[in-house]
Amino acid sequence: MKNFNALVGLLACLATTSVNAATKEQWRGRSMYQIVTDRFAQPTPEQALTEGLVANCDPKGATWCGGNWRSIIDKLDYIKDMGFSAIWISPVNQNIDVTTPYGSAIHGYWVNDVTKLNPRFGTSNDLKSLIQAAHDRGIYVMVDIVINHIATMPRGKGTVKEMLDQDPLMMYRDEGSYHNPYCRIRDYGKLPEYRVCTILTEVALVDVDTDSPSVQSTLNSWIKGFVQEYAIDGLRLDAAKHMEPQSQKDFCQAAGVMCMGEVYSNAAQDQKKYTDGFIDSIHSYPLYEGFKHAFIPDSTPTLNMQSFLNKLDEQQYWIKDTTVLGTFFGNHDNPRWYAKNQDAVIGQNAFVSALMVEGIPTVYYGDEQELAYGLVSCDNRQALWSTIGGVGSSNYPTDKLAYQTIKRVHQVRGYLSTSSDFDTQLAKPITPKGSKTEAGLKRGKAVFVVTNRGSGSTEGTLKVPSTGFNGTAVDMLTCTSFQVAADGSVEVSFANGGKPFVFLSIEDAAASGICPDLPGAASTTVAPSSAVSTISLTTSAETGKTVMPAATTSAGEIVEAMPSSIKHGASSADDITQDQATPTDGPVSITASDGAIAQPTQVSGEGEQPSSVVGTSETSATAPEATQVAASSSGSGSTASGNEAPPQATGADGSAPQATGPTGAAPSQIDSQPDAKDPATTSVGNSAHSTGVQVSFLGTMVIMIAYLGL
Question: Do residues 552 and 558 touch, judged by C-beta distance below 8 A?
């Protein structure tokens, strides 16, 4: 019994310290939906934590709208339906709870004690319930963390001591924990100013000395326990630019999960300082700058697609691993795209660009609804359910072009991720550089074409060379077939509006099951769901990838092709039967001329859902073969490595180079291994956590049982 108790104690320790950790390899290939908790989902009367419900919440007032962790749970299926496999929620920790000249701390970034939760958003059990509900759907949770500063009111005085005397709620009670004297940043490009001074004036964000041994000890001990208690999958570090890279590295190592930092710089060369050996990932602000000047009219006198390509090239040269960068076309700190450009087709092109280049794409809540309010950052956090003029949608419809585009591209990404090494491939231009209006790029087995011509385009064609296709290519956004020329090129027309294209070969398009009317497409006949028993997953000995056969009835009849987008949002057969299956006896309506996404015919939701999905012993016990990341041959896309020569570090308008890498410098290389399709992300019976860790955990049990003589 003594040995047994020792074993139980050891296993409990292992379970709490290992099972929930999610590394950058496990994050690679995922996509995130960013949530501002107070503004995303209106609570029911039973869920509300404040008196009364705010039906119409004016974002200009920066007042509380009442969204909380409980209300997010009810909308997780809305997020999952778009194909997202992760959410990023705004800070969860205690904030100052007063009205300031800037409004209230609805965003969560005015933290005064990271060791306590914000009661405005719920209890400890509420947060745990949200994270568990996300995991049940195969969705990772990234929590925004603020450790760079401590907020206090009223506005900061001359010394830290005076602020400590006036505010007993400030977390650190000794002056040595802060940079002293208190100062305000006036030059965001000057060191050490942007590391030791504060950001705002009317709200004092007192800069914490994160290099202080006592501060580091407090933070590292807290974050380790916090991540373990709540089973958090990743951290977003607010204001990472304002902290020393080494202290961030130590903090993230203590957390044991992937960290993505906010380094607000449009120069990839500057961001490199934080990624080289320090933090796993950062937000891709250089690429965002390129997106702005390619797709948002007032960002530059003339839209310039070359700016997007230049920034992509620059980023791939300076950053070792761009496959885990946080790519985005909007967030809480920048104007909403639709507020500046209300051409939904241009927005569609921008979303295709952000979702198809390498990285962990992030979509800001409400952008999928084409919200048109928010020319400045404090106005772009409107309640998604609000109906105040100019705000936009109120009831989470799914018919917006942006929503449908995001969903369809996720389906394509899901297929590519599970059928190839897409997650480690880089996007490379294959059309001639210099065009201000369009570009064609290749990433792995996919080719995508984007343009800023807009919905009013009535002319123009583009020949896309070196596609690698033979015979026929299929635009997966409209399920339209294109003839491939003898030289491997495909010609597209912008005569019916400047729509984007996402091409796969006819073979891959058919295998994906996304366009069921294609010759050779996977069967989509759906039998009564009660007849579905199990779906067995096996691992290919040749490729090491998970093989997903069709589901079968108890009589052994094939009833439905197993969708391959499990990693990108689907975690069980229940998740995909009604959403992605299409009967074969009805045609699919394709309305490509107006830019709409062709949708498979939907199946009635009658009857029970498939009851169980299990993996075979091969899947459960055999780790997939890891693939070395290395430069690939031409014509098949590029893997995560640097360019052969330094690119031009251009301005956002695509102008002449401002800085370049050292002459003749060797390209940055990645020597790490990719996710290799982590079994937890393809085994539909498990939550989103690492099956690899579970296997190792079981192995440890066997060893310890033998060791202890049980």
Answer: yes
Residue with tokens 């691992």: 539
Segments of the chain assigned to CATH 2.60.40.1180: 426-619
Per-residue tokens: 264 = 């607000």
Among 15-29, 397-411, 500-514, the range scoring the smallest mean pLDDT is: 15-29
Name the CATH architecture for the domain at 426-619.
Sandwich (2.60)
| Distance separating alpha carbons of residues 514 and 660, to the nearest angstrom | 43
Q: What is the DSSP letter of 641?
A: B
DSSP state of 81: H
Query: Which tokens in the block code for residue 71?
Result: 């209300």
The verdict on whether omega for the bond into residue 154 sits within 30 degrees of 0, i.e. cis, is yes
Contacts of 6 (CB under 8 A, 6+ apart): 708
Q: What is the pLDDT of residues 519-556, one digit of tens each?
A: 766 643 322 222 222 223 333 333 333 333 333 322 33
Distances (CA, A) of 645 to 30, 340, 450, 642: 29, 36, 26, 8
DSSP 584-600: TTSPPP--GGGTPPP-P
Residue numbers annotated as active site? 238, 262
Q: What is the pTM of this model?
A: 0.74
Mean of pLDDT values over 19-24 = 77
Tens-place pLDDT, residues 453-466: 999 998 999 999 99
Sheet strands (E) in 230-354: 234-237, 258-261, 281-282
Quote the tokens at residue 5.
């108790």
Structure tokens at 129: 């319930």
